[in-house]
Amino acid sequence: MGPSDHVFIPTVLFLMSYIRSVKFQPERLEVLASISWTKAVLDILKQHKHYFFDHACLRVIRNKLGEHVFQQLPRVIREELFQHGCLALRREIWSAIRDFHTPDLFVPFMYVFYNTDIKQLEVPPLVRVQDRLTVMDMLYNLGTPNGHDAHTFKVKMFDTQNISIEESYVLKRVLRGFRSLSSLIIWKACDDAMLQIIGVTCKQLESIDIWKSTNATDSGIRMFLGLDAERPFKVCSSLKRVAIKDTSVTDIGAFYLMIHCENLENLEFSQDCFLQQLLWRISENFIRTKTVFNLKTLILQVNKPCTMLNVVKSLPKLEELTVWTSLERVRDVESCDFGNILSLKLGGLNHPTFLKDMCSLIGSQLTSLKIETVHFDVDIGLIGKQCPNIEDLHVINARIKVTKNSDDQGQTFSRLKLLYLFLVQYLIEPIHIQRPPISPSSPAGVPHPSTGHTALHTLLLNGTNLESVQVSGSSALTDSCIDSILTRNPLSKLKRLVISHPLSIDNLVVPLTSRSVVRIQNSCPAIQCLGDLKHWAVTPAQRRKLSRNIPPSVIKAN
C-alpha cells in the first residue's frame, strides 16, 4: 500500500481483527451536563452509604436535592436525569464480600430521586433481602393513596423463584399502586395471587412478561383474565403481548389467553413444553367452531398436512411464521391463507420441495427469510427469483448452491439489506463471469486458493442495497473476486462487513489480503466495521502496519 492510498482510507481504528469507525462528534451539551450531574450525585451517595436501618442522612439529602429537583426542574428533565442515574448504576459492580453490609447503591438513589410521576421504572437485581424490602416499602408508601404514573414497570430484583412470604406480601401491595401500566415485567416472582391483582388493577395493560415465575399456573391465568368473576377484566380487551416462558402455565392457560384476549398479537412460551398440545387445541377448535385468532407470530412444528392447514386458517393475521417440519410438500394451503406474512423462518426441512412450495406461495411478499438446519442444498437462485422483495436473509447450518447464470436474472436481491450466513458450506461452480486479470504472483496471497463462483459471489454482486453482511468465508473468494464485485456493485451503503473462516478443514483462511481491505474501504464510504481479519490472509504485522498508516490529518478532519 503506497502513500497515495492513505488519503482514501476512512477514519478507522484497528481493534483486534476488526476495523471500526471512530465517532468524533461530541454528545450534546445537555446530555453531557446530565451525565456529569448524575456522576456527581452518585459520588455523594457513595459517601453516605449507611447500614440498612439508618435513613436519616438520606432524608436530609432528599430534602436538599428535592427542593431543587422536584420543584424547579420540569418533569421531562427529572425523568431524563433519573434514567441517566439508573443507567450509570447498572455499570456499578456490587461485591458480596465488600458491600454485603451496606445497601446496594440503587437503594439510596431510589430513596433520594424517585417520584411517582416517573413514567418508566426498572428495579434491577438486588442481592440483599433488606434492599428489596426497602425499595418495595418506599414504592408502597409513595404510591399511597394516589398511586404511580408509570407506564412501564420492570421488576427484575429477585434472584430466585422462591421469594420470602414477606417479599411476596409487600410486592402485592406495591402492584396495587401501579394503575396506569401499559407494560409490566415481573421475573421469577409472579404467582397466581399477583396475577389476579394485576388483572384487577391494570386496566390498560398491553404487555406482561412473567419469565421463570414457576408459581404462576393456569388458575392464575383465569384469575388474571377474570374468567370466574361476574364479567371478564378489561385486560381481555387491552392485552397485546404475553410472555409465559419457563412458568407453570400449560397449553390450557395459553389457550385461555388466545380465546379471551381479542387483541392478543404475541404469545411467547417455552416451545418445548406444550407446543404440540397447543397446536392440537388450535386445530381441533378450528374444526369444530371455525374460530380465528389475532396472533401475528407463531412457531409451527408440524408433520401432518391437516394440522398445518387448520392452524394456518385459524390465524389469518399472521405476519411472522416459523415452521419446523419434515413434510415434503405444502398441501391444500393457498397463498391467501398466508396473506399477511412478511417474515418466514424454516427449519429442519428434509425436502427442497417444501422450500420451493413456500417460496412459490408467499415469496413475493416476504421481506425476511431465515433458513436453519436443512438437509439438502439451498438454491440461492431460486430464492432470488421468487423472493424479489427480500430485505433480510439468514441461512444457518446449510449447504448453499448457486444456479448457473443467476447473476443475469435481473434485479434479484436488489432490496437485500441484511445478509447473515453462519456455518454454511458453499458449493463452488466453475467461473462463468468475466473477471479482471489475476496478479501473476498469487490471486490472494495464499499458495493455492480455489477458483470458481459461489452463492456468496452472487449475493455480493446483486445486493446493491446491502448494509450489513456477516458470513462464513469461502476459499473461492479472492482479491480479484472483490475487485470484480466492487466494479459492478460498489456496495456504497455497506456499513458492516464480517467474513469469518471457511467451513472447511482444508481452508482455514479466506484468501483476501490487505489489498481487499483497502479496496473495500475506498469503495464503501459508509463502512463502520470490517472484519474478521484474523481469518483473512492478513498477518498481525500487516494489520498493525495498516493501523499506523492512517494519517492523523484524516482523523482530525473528522
Report the β-strand fraction as a percent range: 15-25%
* SSE-based structural type: alpha/beta
The gross shape turns out to be flat
How far do the termini sit from each other? 23 Å
Walk me through the structure:
The chain is of the alpha/beta class and 558 residues long. It has helices at 29-47, 56-72, 75-90, 96-99, 106-113, 129-142, 165-175, 192-201, 218-225, 235-238, 251-260, 271-289, 305-314, 352-362, 380-386, 455-462, 479-488, 514-523, 540-548, 552-557, and strands at 12-15, 18-21, 120-123, 152-155, 183-186, 207-209, 241-243, 266-268, 297-301, 320-324, 343-347, 368-372, 377-379, 392-401, 418-426, 468-472, 496-500, 529-531. The strands form two sheets. Strands 1, 2, 9, 10, 11, 12, 13, 14, 15, 16, 17 and 18 form a twelve-stranded mixed β-sheet that branches. A six-stranded parallel β-sheet has the order 3-4-5-6-7-8. α1 crosses α3 (75-90), α9 runs parallel beside α11 (251-260) and α17 (479-488) packs parallel to α18. The two termini are 23 Å apart. Mean pLDDT is 86; it is low at 1-16, 432-445 and 550-558.
